[in-house]
């Protein structure tokens, strides 16, 4: 599984993947352009066009690299000069592609793989009762504000009455709203309503169907 079921989460994943592909294509084009600009003196280019999609400053910098390569070739003794310049052009183009793309992959790829593994494991756990209990336990480890939001979705227990000794202003006819503590109590008692609410909250966090 590579994409979430939730439309918002899936849209963000698609945007991230598209940005990664665009970044890779951009640096591939730049590396190829630099390789064509830096040519041995024995194979002069009649015309070096402006590189598209790049500003004048970047284009000028790449042309400076090309002129530096020409000077290296002309200064090197023949016949090693053209071969050395060709090898330098290839290595420079490869480095120009590998370094920025590699840095991007070290940030983007592990997160995508981690989400894919978590989503696959969550779907497998959600198919069994014991698995949903494990999902509920994982949901209990989320921050307190998320637990409070999950507890707010639970119906108030009809047999729970407020403690008037602690707060005499409470209405004895109104059951208190469930809080994060009620989630832990419901998990310990294997309350199916609480377990389902926690498991569904964990699936929703991953962008999966409940």
Could you please describe the fold and organization of this structure?
This protein is mainly alpha-helical. It has 7 helices and no strands. Helix 1 runs antiparallel to helix 3 (80-126) and helix 4 crosses helix 7 (192-205). The protein is rod-shaped, with a radius of gyration of 31 Å. The two termini are 16 Å apart.
What's the β-strand tally?
Answer: 0
- Over all CA atoms, what is the radius of gyration? 31 Å
Main sheet specs: none
**Mean pLDDT rating:** 76
Give the % helix.
Answer: 55-70%
Question: What is the chain-wise order of helices and strands?
Answer: HHHHHHH
Q: Treating each run of at least 4 consecutive H or I residues as one helix, how many helices?
A: 7
- Give the distance, in angstroms, between the N- and C-terminal Cα atoms: 16 Å
Q: Report the sheet-strand fraction.
A: under 5%
Using the alpha-carbon principal axes, give the shape: rod-shaped
SS content category: mainly alpha
Low-confidence stretches: 161-167, 170-175
List keywords for this structure.
210 residues; mainly alpha; 7 helices
Summarize the structure.
The protein is mainly α and 210 residues long. It contains 7 helices and no strands.
Write the layout of secondary structure elements.
Blueprint: H1 7-37, H2 56-75, H3 80-126, H4 129-140, H5 144-151, H6 180-188, H7 192-205
């Amino acid at each position: 599984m590579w994409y979430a079921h939730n439309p918002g989460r899936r849209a963000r994943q698609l945007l991230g993947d598209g940005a990664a592909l665009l970044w890779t294509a951009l640096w591939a084009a730049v590396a190829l352009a630099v390789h064509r600009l830096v040519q041995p003196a024995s194979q002069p280019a009649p015309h070096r066009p402006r590189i598209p999609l790049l500003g004048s400053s970047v284009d000028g910098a790449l042309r400076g690299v090309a002129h530096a390569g020409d000077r290296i070739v002309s200064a090197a003794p023949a016949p090693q000069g053209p071969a050395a310049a060709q090898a330098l052009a290839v290595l420079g183009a490869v480095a120009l592609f590998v370094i920025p793309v590699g840095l991007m992959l070290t940030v983007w790829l592990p997160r995508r793989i981690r989400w894919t593994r978590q989503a696959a494991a969550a779907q497998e756990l959600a198919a069994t009762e014991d698995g949903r209990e494990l999902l509920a336990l994982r949901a209990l480890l989320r921050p307190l504000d998320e637990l409070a939001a999950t507890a707010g979705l639970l119906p108030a227990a009809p047999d729970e009455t407020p403690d008037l000794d602690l707060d005499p202003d409470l209405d004895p006819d109104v059951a208190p709203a469930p809080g994060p503590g009620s989630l832990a109590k419901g998990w310990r008692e294997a309350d199916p309503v609480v377990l389902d609410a926690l498991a569904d909250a964990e699936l929703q966090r991953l962008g999966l169907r409940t």
